[in-house]
Amino acid sequence: MKKPTGTNGAFRIQINPDGTVSGSFMPITLPNSKAEVEQTIVNRFLASMNTHLKQAGERFFLSNPRINDENDFDFTVDSPRGIAFLELMEIAPLSGPYDKAPAQYNVYNFSKTIYQGITRKSKSYAQNMANDLFLLIYPTHWAFTPSRSAINCLRYWCASTSLAFRAVFYYQPLDEQEGAPHWIFPVPPELLNNFNPEQVRDNVFINLDPRNWDIDSNSA
Questions:
Q1: pLDDT by residue (tens digit) across 92-109?
Q2: Does residue 217 belong to any structural domain of this protein?
Q3: Rounded to two decimals, what is the model's pTM?
Q4: At what angle are helices 107-122 and 148-159 packed, to 10 degrees?
Q5: Residue 4 within any structural domain of the chain
Q6: Which structural domain, as residue segments, surrounds residue 92?
Q7: Is residue 1 part of a domain?
Q8: Taking the mean position of all CA atoms in its chain, how far away is CA 70?
């Protein structure tokens, strides 16, 4: 089944042999089918987690993802507690095509939409399953990249909700290989540092389209 995805990637800056500076947008390519897209996201998420933990001599506790048939959990994974399951959820609050998505969003409302998606998924499963269940959320379009405040909103709300998931992760693809992984739930209380979503109820965040970036040759 073909899965529509947005546009994501990074703006790479390099110094050329003649001393000039240039930059270009490097898009992240994803496969066409839903199964292949999700397999790619999971593989890169696990690789990124292991890269971050390698400095401490550790490895991420989930491994060996195996994609399942439709109408089942998205993936079966290995964990220290035995076989576990991993579900995926794309962050894509679309009201039209990806390229028509606004770059600006209200932090509180955007976060609440993602949180409601998490809770809807959670309600589909029993609270006490024989195997652990995990959730990975991710964007495929630059406009849907959550800000730090949005991530904190999700952490706050998930911490006060009874979820079927043993843990919830967020993964931001950065290039063709890796990205930035984040824990959403559970997190230690000190990580929130007395954060309250009401503090950002009226905040607006703007994501910049990396395809439109350029190098100012006058400042290089």
A1: 998 889 999 999 999 999
A2: no
A3: 0.92
A4: 40
A5: no
A6: 9-212
A7: no
A8: 22
